[in-house]
Design a protein that fits this description.
With 166 residues, the chain is mainly alpha-helical. The protein contains 6 helices and 2 strands; from the N terminus they run H-H-H-H-E-E-H-H. The longest helix has 29 residues, at 137-165. Keywords: DNA-binding. Residues 16-152 form the HTH marR-type domain. This is DNA-binding MarR family transcriptional regulator.
Length: 166
């Protein structure tokens, strides 16, 4: 069994430890992929995360404001303003008035920025989809539930960390 880190609750079985190690490796690989994407497009980590927030919001039909980006990324108003200013200046984003509330300013992806992700990550998505064809419907349901649970744990950890930092 793997050595427990301080603060870990109780002993886990070897299979659970193996899954956790695989998730840690996956997380490290995903972080490195994001770093390489940013370097290829001269985008820092916060900017790449902001673009991901905007891509997800566009897919879901949600409006995005500077405040919602700040909450999502855990950034101050000043930091978000500077981040959006950089992304507007580089041609990745635009600001536009909310047609339903002219006092509100929405942040939108420029088409060129929206195309960056699919161009860079498309081959990876295709490779993953090809590999998932080996799984049946039940397996995919289990994987989807597991990933949702893992994401819930990550979000809970982030929120605990943010609360502890004040």
């Amino acid at each position: 069994m793997a050595t427990e880190m301080p603060g870990e609750a109780g002993a886990r079985d070897a299979r659970t430890d193996a899954v956790i190690r695989q998730l840690q490796t996956l997380g490290a690989e995903m972080a490195d992929l994001a770093r390489r994407f940013g370097a290829a497009h001269d985008i820092d980590h916060s900017a790449a995360r902001a673009l991901l927030v905007l891509v997800a919001a566009a897919r879901e039909g949600r409006d995005v404001t500077a405040g919602s980006i700040g909450r999502e990324l855990g950034l101050s108003s000043a930091s978000v303003t500077a981040l959006i200013d950089r992304l507007v200046a580089s041609g990745h984003l635009r600001r536009e008035p909310d047609p339903r509330d002219r006092r509100r300013v929405l942040v939108r992806l420029e088409p060129s920025a929206a195309a960056l992700g699919p161009a860079y990550f498309g081959p990876l998505a295709t490779d993953m989809a090809d590999r998932l064809t080996a799984y049946d419907e039940h397996d995919l349901d289990v994987v989807q539930r597991f990933l949702a649970t893992a994401l819930e744990a990550l979000v809970a950890h982030r929120e605990r960390d943010a609360a502890a930092r004040g």
